[in-house]
Structures are given as structure tokens and as C-alpha cells.
From TrEMBL:
Family affiliation: Belongs to the copine family.
Domain VWFA: 238-464
Domain C2: start-end pairs: 78-201
Region entry Disordered, spans: 471-493
Calcium as UniProt keyword: yes
Pfam families, per the entry: C2, Copine
Protein name: Copine Va
Amino acid sequence: VLKRTEVIDNTLNPDFVRKYILDYFFEEKQNLLLCRHTPRCMHFKCDFLGQVYCTLGEIVGSPASRLEKPLGGIPGKKCGTIILSAEELGNCRDYTTMQFCANKLDKKDFFGKSDPFMVFYRSNEDGTFTICHKTEVMKNTLNPVWQPFSIPVRALCNGDYDRTIKVEVYDWDRDGSHDFIGEFTTSYKELCRGQSQLNVYEVSGDKDSQYCYLLRFPAALLLTASFPLFICFSTQIHFTVAIDFTASNGNPSQSTSLHYMNPYQMNAYAMALKAVGEIIQDYDSDKMFPALGFGAKLPPDGRVSHEFPLNGNIENPYCNGMQGILEAYHQSLKTVQLYGPTNFAPVVNHVARYAAAVQDGSQYFVLLIITDGVISDMAQTKEAIVNAAKLPMSIIIVGVGQAEFDAMVELDGDDVRISSRGKLAERDIVQFVPFRDYMDRTGNHVLSMARLAKDVLAEIPDQLISYMKSRGIKPNTDPPPPQTQLSVGVGIH
């Protein structure tokens, strides 16, 4: 048992007061099992009244982060309804800005003065320390004035204002063997006192009388609009999938094909789709998803298409949940002819047209492309991505098979932001992973697909926030009062 509510006597409609703090990760499927019991006071035993399965993502992704589900678990009996709500803890969204200077630091360089920088550490529950911030290096000075910096309060002290913060000062060396100058400790509570004698710290090291001073600390915290806040009150996520039907995948009727439908095991396309889709579907209220294919000849005339609906319905390409997409995918393999080339631009532009129509922050679009090979329309795809980077949109690319994916890495843009016709992408909106990196040789596909989903979805929250910030968009409601972690409450009717 992870958590337990209080007992409420003599009622069929309890509204539980006790809340629980849970760590929330958008990119992970966090399963919850809630059971309802009634105690028998004389023997401290419980009668089972019902249970419900859900995910934390289902709660967060529901309107106003309020999920209502029927209780089950007792055959032939109606067990009532459970209402679950979630809100983000206030101090998880707090940022603070501070600035330090130092005086008479130790001279560590034989020629010239020191090149000092500061390293901040958050203390952990077990007494160890985790690095949470480094300042810039101030060249050739013993009296540095570092630039102001902003940091989440949670990163600095995990929301505990009395927790120890350790600060070390080093002299930078080009070869990485930085010389230790000294250290001091403080806490967020002490820093909140602001610029005063209370925030002058002796830097203990090899030299006496060297000090660090807090120059700047704001009286008020900067409250930022977080991903859970947008999802809770403002933004609906729309998920679209596009599947590669080019001939390089191999004949679907042969076991060597990447599209081969083994009756005992899903192929790579289906596994990737299920791994990502089962998480992101929790954030779509109606669970209806457009599913497209590209690179195939369509019946009856053999026309090549690079954005055809998997369900065959041009007017309504939506599939009901992940199972609906998988069924449409399997049906398409029986009706279309794998062909080519591998063009991404049509499906990117397809989703971008919808994103361009709604740029007020109320909707955000995620496109999942699953492909096996080299892109044929690289220039057009780069142009489409550069244009899409201005829109509320993210792109996930999963590469299946053993092909070289150099072009996909270029589209990812982690090292070099992609450009088209001399114009840089406004944001990094593409995440690429090769499916083969997640194949577990022991056969544990559940864990390997969980890792796949975590890696491809991890950047979505930051990408959504970066779009909102670039447009000055804030959630359309005031944030909940201070109480990412989430506080989860329960009611039963």
C-alpha cells in the first residue's frame, strides 16, 4: 500500500481530506490502483467495496485535472463512482534570481590571478549532495562579480527552505583540473534575507579572509507557467501518427518484413506506436486520433499517396484509441501496395495546417512518424519543420530497422539547429530515436518500450512551454494556491 486515506464514518458519499504528494513525469506511464474499503472497528478488518485502475496522466490530462471513473471489482454489483483530482504544488513552479560577488579570493595561477567560478549543490535525504548550478567563469580576478542567474527553487532545495545548500568556489583550468578555492553553506531561508551582513559568507579554504557576498535576491518569487498548469486549465494535446508504407520495409507477407504481422508478437511499428501512444492518449479527452500513412499506392487506381488515412476515410481519418489505430494499420497492410519514395514533408505540413489555425495556446499538436529509411525529400522536410517550429507543434520520429539514420539525426537538431533557405528553426521541435537501441535481447519488451516512450516524450513538456513563452501565452486561469510533484485528492459517490 502506497497511501491510505482517513476513515469517514457513516456516509455513502465521502469526500476525503487527506492528499498525497506524487512525483509526476509526463513521459512515463504511472499506474495507480485505488481500492475502497470499509473498516470493521472491533477487529480492525476491512470489507472490500471496489477498486479502479488509472494512470496519473489520466488524472492530469482530464478537464481541470478532475477524473471521474466507476468503481469495479465486485462481479454483478455497482460499486459507485470515484472522483480523483490533481493540482501541482505551488513551490514546484517557483523560480528565484540571485547574484553573488567575492572579495580577496585565493590566487591559484602562477601567472596572473585566478579564474573563479561557483558550483551550487543541493543536499539529499541521505546526506549526499547533487550539483544544481554552475556560474560562468570570471577571468583573471580575485574580486569577481558573477552575473545574476535564475533557478527553480525545487532544483535548489527540493522545496525545503531549511535544507542545506553547499557552494564551492574553484579556479578554472583549461585542462579540467580546476583548483579548489573554498566553500561555504547556506539555505534558501537564509538567502531570503536578501542583501545584508547575514548573507556574507566566509569561503573556507587554504586562505583566510576570503568572502562571498549575496548582491541580489528578489523579495518575491517568479511564478512560472508549468506544463501541468497548461494541461490542467488551458491546453488540449492532439496526437497524430504517420506510418511509413514504402517498399523498403519488405513484403508484409514475409517474415523478414518490418511490417510482418506475427500472430504471436507485434512488429516494430506496432510496438513503437503502442509504447508512445498509450502514454500520450491520456491527454486527449475523446481518445480519437488521426492516423496517416505515406509512400504507398492506393486502390483502385494505384495512385501514390504520402498522406492517406489508415482507416480509408478521407473525411474522417480518426481512429478510436490505440487499438483503433493498430486495427486500421493492419487493415491498410492488406489493401495498399508498399511503394515510395520516403517523403516526410506532406505529413508534417498536414499537421502544421491544423496547428496554424489555433495559435492561442488552447491546443498543441504532436506528430509521431515511424519510418524505416532514408528521407527522399530532405530539403522539403527541413523547410516544413522550420515553418512548423513557429507553431504549437512537436514531431517525434522513431526509426525502425537497420538503416542509417544520419538524416534523422540532422532533423533532431540537438547539436545544430536545422535551417532552410538561410532561416533557422525558431525552436527545436524534433526528437528522433532509433528503435533498435531499445530492443531487449532478453525479450523483456515491456521495459524496453517503457524506456523508448520515456526518451521520445521527455522533450514534449519543454517544447510546449517554449512555444507558450515565445508567444507570451499564459494559462487562462489563475494558478492554484501554493500547497514536478502533484497533490492528489479523492472523493467517492
